[in-house]
Structures are given as structure tokens and as C-alpha cells.
Amino acid sequence: MVLLAALVLAIATLTPLVLAIAALVLLAVAALAPLVLAIAALVLLAVAALVLTVLVLAPLALVLLVLLAALVMLQELLCVVLQAFELAHNCFLPPEGRLLRPFTVPAPAAGAEAIPSQTGLTPGSLGEPLTQLARARPGAMMEGMHVEAINIGTSDALGPVSSVQAVAGRGLEGDRYFFPDGAGPGEALTLIEAEVLEDVGLTGPQARRQVVVRGVRVNDLVGKRFRIGDVECLGIELCEPCLHLQKLTRPGIIKDLIHRGGLRADILSGGTISVGDKVLEDLLPNEPPDQ
Q: Which one of 7, 67, 123, 268 has the largest count of C-beta atoms within 10 Å of its C-beta?
């Protein structure tokens, strides 16, 4: 009975304290509830703003990416079109439509014998006054320059030969670019440097050039008369690479061969061109030989 009485007394004593604590907790919750609700509302507003921003900016970013990709593609297309326009005359235009690089040849010395035109080149036909080159003293051999390979044949069967007959004003016998009725300017003969072929990883037949030479830049022969063995030639223009060549070889070959694709030349006097023949540049009387 004593224990029961003590228990009842303890409960009676603690009940007001428990009720007071409960009341304080309820008051605290009631006081903090607006603050918690306000914080929750702010968080929800921030999330909503972020979602709205993403929904608005995502399409805009996508549009900008599409426009950027379109601009890049347009730039590439323009580069291809400009490159094709620049190089098309080397493959597709008839001879009369080709753009020859103009050059002026010095006048012959008094009493020198003029070389007769074999290819239709006349004064003014290249955009500048053209005087036929004089037949001067023997030419100066370009140090170490010689014929390394000769490649002729039909378009689908180009192959090496040890020698070929060159016909003045017509081309190389047995080649796809032999013109019985007369070749246009720069159509009779093409040359390319062996060093360039090695650099770009092509063979002579793959490059579709007739004569492969070694030892000098053929670009230097534009506008000059030179000889391969006993065959007299005249450099007309650079033989730039074309889209047809790139289609037959590999992507990027046009870029690799720009201004290194070889030389287009006329054949002024006929004869035999053989592997190993020296290449000589004829000097005019007023041009001293290199020392």
C-alpha cells in the first residue's frame, strides 16, 4: 500500500510538469511552422525558377548548336566549291577555256634563229607580249636533274616504260593524251618531281603524270624553254591537282599537291625521251650561266 501511494503521488506530481513541457513543444512548433513553411516555399520557388530557366534555355542552346554546325558545314562547302572552281580547268574544261599563267619571254638577240611555234602560241596569247625564244648556245644542265620514270598508256592502264617517242605539238606516242590533230597549250607533256611523290606517298602512275624527274623544282620551268635529252620543251603552267585525281587516290591529296602537282609543257621538237635522260635549261644570250 505504501508503494502504491508513493506511485500515485509521483504521478500526480509529474503530470503538470509533463503537461507543461508538452505545451511548450506545441508552442515552439506553432512558432516555427511559418518559418519552415516559408523556407520550403522559397526552395520550391528556386526549383521552379531553375526548371523554367532550363526549359527556356535548352531550346535556345540547341538552336545555337545547330546554327554553329550549319556554319561549319557551310564553310567546308564553300572551301570545296572554291577549290573545285580553282582546279576544274585542269580536268574538265576544254583547252580554250583553261587559264594559263601569263609570262613574258625576253626578246631574241639580234641575229638569233627563232624557234617556230609548234603549239599555237602567238604574241599576246598568254595575256602578255610573247616573243619566240631564240635558239641560243647549248643549255645549262640542272645539277642532278634527270628522268627517273616515264608513265604512259590509256586512262585505266597507265604503266612505266623505259622510253617514249615525243612528237612536236602532239604529245607522247601511245599515251592517252596524244593529240594527232595538235595539242593545246600545256597538253603535250606533264612532269612531276620524284621528291614530291615520295612526300605524298604516290607513284608516277597514281599521280597521272607522264614524266617523273628528280633534282629540281619543275615550278621554276614555267615560262622557260628546256630540253629532256634531245627533246625541246616549253613550260606553260603548273599542273595543279584536281578532284578526279583525289577520287582515284585518297582524300586530302589536293591539299597536299597544291602548287606541287607538276608542270604542263609543250613539245617544241620531237625525239625520244628515255629514263636517265638529263634535263637542260636553254639560256638566252643575255643570260649568263650559273657559276
A: 268
